[in-house]
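Record filed here:
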Amino acid sequence: MTTALQGMRRLARRLEVPHNDDLSYSEMFLTNDDLLPVPPEKRAWKAWNFVAL
């Protein structure tokens, strides 16, 4: 039973998503890198792309 529990803990650690330890749970829930605005230097679209959409 102990080895099964250790195996589950090891699996859980491998599946854990990296997170910022400085943020509270509610802050992590409300923001992530996918939701933040893209910085201007990394934007691959221009005004025409926005209009065409």
Remarks:
- The mean pLDDT is 85.
- Residues 2-33 form one domain.
- The longest helix spans residues 2-15.
- The chain has three helices and no strands.
